[in-house]
Amino acid sequence: MSSLPRTRIRHVALAATAGVAAIGLLSACSYGSKAADATPAAATGGSSAASGPKLSADSVRIGYFANLTHATPLIGIQNGQFQKDLGATTIKTQIFNAGPDEVEALNSGAIDIAWIGPSPAINAYAKSKGAALKIISGATTGGAELVVNPAKIKTVADLKGKKIATPQLGNTQDVALLNFLSTKGFKENAQTGKGDVSVIRTDNSLTPTAYSGGSIDGAWVPEPTASKLVAEGAKILVDEKSLWPGGKFVSTNVVVSQTFLKAHPDVVQAVLKASVDTNAWIAANPDAAKKDANDALTVLTKKALPDAVLNSAWSELSVTNDPLAASLQTEADHAVTAGFISKPDLSGIYDLTLLNKVLAAAGQQPVSAAGLGAQ
Questions:
Q1: Which interval of the chain is the signal sequence (predicted)?
Q2: Which residue, among 144, 148, 141, has the nearest Cα to 225 in the 3D structure?
Q3: Hey, where are the domains in the chain?
Q4: Any idea what the Cα angle at residue 200 is, between residues 114 and 226, rounded to 5°?
């Protein structure tokens, strides 16, 4: 399957244009194994000291990844927009490799709000019978590809017998790969990764070395990891956008602990305002935003992305306030096909009340929960 052509980053989809038990995604996922300790945002190159009106919480703990698919917190914390909107409420950040660890941290009370892919959010909500979290905003669409060694894999059929990496057992790209393989007739064990194709769960930071060393033959990964592999000579076999109507699908959401949402709605609304404000700034300043994202990644990973990798990765994704809720049920169906869960009841998984309040204040149209909103 050929990939879609790379294009310049699209403008942010403002409004609707783009449309409590500690329960982890899977019992095999242990919280903290791939996460940095929580630290004040300023320690990760983020905002200035907290100042301004006091909200109902002294601090808010925000989790996200050192990935471009989490561009909004990367940039908004880096340039101070989040701290400006949160006033005297201190931001503490925690960085994760993939969603299963992050959602376990959210459910255990280690973080309050998180940027996360749809699959871990879906499974946490389903397994907690609707008690674990709420999706409160969109964040990103696009930015995930299956990239492979062209000397070994030229067609989808050539995947048989090969080793393909994903970031973590049960994360969004892991589910996407397993669903894709199932639709192409490959037989896989979702838990072990064994089957016609060997699925190797590998930390994103280690995937480029694993590829260059020959221990994997490709990977289904988010940006900028996919573009790092392309810089190592890999080729895009499947751009995930090509699998979705109009190329639109949710790749990152914003979620919140229901406990924190009930106790501190003003803080949650301030975080959402920061997200909307940051997305608007990205739309108006795409080149500066790209530089800010790279600066934030440099602080977090100790290494800047080369220009070629940054430009390639940045062109593959779009930030959006719209959660693209209509695609969430399809994401859940993929998890069922992959063998991770039984068909879940997602009724009430969204609570877009505060987001739509923020959008209305900014003169923007409300976004839809596609029938899966809070009652």
A1: 1-35
A2: 144
A3: 39-142+249-361, 144-246
A4: 60
Q: Phi and psi for 297 in degrees, rounded to 5? A: -65, -35
Fold identical between 39-142+249-361 and 144-246?
yes
- According to DSSP, the residues that pair with 144 across neighbouring strands are 222
* 144-246 CATH fold: D-Maltodextrin-Binding Protein; domain 2 (3.40.190)
Taking the C-alpha atoms of residue 338 and residue 279, their distance in angstroms, rounded to an integer, is 33
How many residues are present in the chain? Answer: 375
Q: In what order do the strands lie in the sheet with 198-201?
A: 198-201, 163-166, 218-222, 144-148, 235-239
Q: Please state the separation of Cα 296 from the chain's center in Å.
A: 16
Per-residue confidence in pLDDT tens, the chain, 375 aa: 333 333 333 333 333 333 323 333 332 232 233 444 445 554 454 444 677 788 999 999 999 999 999 999 999 999 999 999 999 999 999 999 888 899 999 999 999 999 999 999 999 999 999 999 999 999 999 999 999 999 999 999 999 999 999 999 999 999 999 999 999 999 999 999 999 999 999 999 999 999 999 999 999 999 999 999 999 999 999 999 999 999 999 999 999 999 999 999 999 999 999 999 999 999 999 999 999 999 999 999 999 999 999 999 999 999 999 999 999 999 999 999 988 889 999 999 999 999 999 999 999 999 999 999 975
Contact 323, 350 (CB under 8 A): yes
